[in-house]
């Protein structure tokens, strides 16, 4: 047996990609469970940092797996993790896209679509919970989270401004 | 060849070439801070006229229901509609290529400077804010689901939350148990 982390990296993320209904946001708790608790690839802070970097980077938030992969095994790890997270689901998407329109009115299609919505809502809610627990170590950080949640819910302010302000607050040692 | 899979649409809907597909998704991905959806919509429906608003909503609903990252799925669904497998590959490459390069540069910088006190403090602030944004998304998604008082959807959402967040069960198990129940309930109550 070799101890290369590339194989588990590929296996975990390929599996995860097939169950992550709701996208990157739904998969955060499982990534955290595997990367921090099961495989000990990184600690809580490094995981939270990876999430933050993925958030401020342009592009799909799923790019957090690239960061985890890089942390574990350099560029090879980044490539393997990204391919694993996108590959299986892209094949599924391609195959389904070719047939889906044909069943637009089918009752089973409508049931699947409606049935998966609450599951993915619960998963994304769990992500928010896990992130809050890893990120909000001080009352001030928790306040930032609460205020941002309100701003995000009630206004249409560009998130980049919120990130900039909270980054400066963090830098100045408030959090 | 892409003409054969063209969607039924009004005449002002145009067909993108492979090069245009790549460019469009590359631009969408780099401008898409905090979610690429609004940018994809702007580009595809409003600027390029490649899809009507309804076609876009349907393609995106499909991408959301499929497992895995939504925008990645969307690029495949959209690309395959206009250019088959080649279209899907090109749209996906456009979507993932530029962000990958940027995030790898950031990863190298983090590996080198991640221990810097100042950088980690900045990231603590950003993570706190990003978590808040996620909570806002959850609240927005929950509103229509929780509006009806006696419905099967809220208990399913709460069960998924408890299973993953509180009990910390592996996501595939929670999914494999809850998804069939939820789909069956959706089937029966319709």
Q: Explain this structure to me?
A:
With 175 residues, chain A is an all-alpha fold. Chain A has two domains: 6-135, no CATH class; 136-175, no CATH class. In chain A, 78% of the residues lie in helices and 0% in strands. Chain A is built from seven helices and no strands. Chain B is an all-alpha fold and 190 residues long. Chain B folds into two domains: 2-113, no CATH class; 149-190. Chain B is built from seven helices and no strands. Mean pLDDT of chain B is 82; it is low at 1-11. At the A-B interface, helix 1, helix 2, helix 3, helix 4 and helix 5 of A face helix 1, helix 3, helix 4, helix 5 and helix 6 of B.
Proportion in β-strands of chain B: under 5%
What string, H for helix and E for strand, traces the elements of chain B in order? HHHHHHH
Radius of gyration of chain B: 20 Å
| End-to-end separation of chain A | 45 Å
Low-confidence stretches of chain B: 1-11
How many DSSP E strands of chain B? 0
Q: Top keywords for this entry?
A:
heterodimer; A: 175 residues; mainly alpha; 7 helices; 78% helix; 0% strand; B: 190 residues; 77% helix; globular; disordered N terminus
A few lines on this structure:
The complex is a heterodimer of chains A (175) and B (190). With 175 residues, chain A is an all-alpha fold.
Topology:
The complex is a heterodimer of chains A (175) and B (190).
Chain A: H1 6-19, H2 24-38, H3 44-56, H4 64-100, H5 107-135, H6 139-154, H7 159-171
Chain B: H1 18-31, H2 37-47, H3 53-65, H4 70-113, H5 117-147, H6 153-166, H7 171-189
